[in-house]
Write a structure and sequence with these properties.
The protein is an alpha/beta fold. It has helices at about 15-25, 45-60, 75-80, 90-110, 130-135, 145-160; strands at about 1-5, 30-35, 65-70, 85-90, 115-120. Strand 1, helix 1 and strand 2 form a beta-alpha-beta unit. It is globular. The model has no long low-confidence stretch (mean pLDDT about 95). Bound molecules: 4'-phosphopantetheine (PNS).
């Protein structure tokens, strides 16, 4: 069974990495897919930078591939012959958004199932948005993001002062 784990990953956190590790044990192949044409706020890292960081942290997992996609997620999943969309749920506040997306995706492509994994407790408060905010205000995010991400975040902050 091939699964797609989609997201913005701007940047990847240890919560995402935990899901990649667990997903890699559940599925034959896991495709981590970065959305290219996000409608939300301007990303901090370009798609190319996000792919580089993801590829580095996913390299220990032989059945994990990192890719990007544009357009509808279900079209991408069908193109990659994936039957599952993998998503993580942290708190109840994630549930409504995730339910909406899962139901819309199921309507668009009934053959593609969304599978949810609960975030590990250690990362249930963690988000890329908060990481960016903390870093921009001079806070320490060590242990919350992979070292490669921490290094890039620090160099961005150093360039902006
Ligand atoms: O990590 P994010 O930003 O919450 O991920 C959101 C993502 C990429 C999964 C979602 O925005 C998405 O699937 N976008 C592709 C467009 C699409 O298929 N929309 C219709 C289904 S809701």
């Amino acid at each position: 069974m091939i699964a797609v784990y989609p997201g913005s990953f701007d940047p990847i956190t240890n919560g995402h990495l935990d899901l990649i590790a667990r997903g890699s044990r559940l599925f034959t192949r896991l495709i981590v897919a970065v959305l290219e044409n996000a409608i939300k706020e301007a990303p901090l890292f370009s798609v190319v930078e996000r792919l580089e960081m993801l590829r580095e942290v996913a390299s220990p997992f032989p059945n994990v591939e990192v890719d990007s996609f544009h357009g509808l997620l279900v079209d991408y999943a069908v193109k990659r012959q994936a039957g599952v969309l993998l998503r993580g749920i942290r708190a109840i506040s994630d549930y409504e958004y995730e339910l909406q997306m899962a139901l819309m995706n199921s309507r668009l492509s009934p053959g593609v199932e969304t599978v949810f994994l609960m975030s590990s407790e250690a990362y249930s408060f963690l988000s890329s948005r908060l990481v960016k905010q903390v870093v921009s205000l001079g806070g320490n995010v060590s242990g919350l993001v992979p070292p490669v991400v921490e290094k890039r975040l620090k160099s961005l902050v150093a360039r902006s002062v």
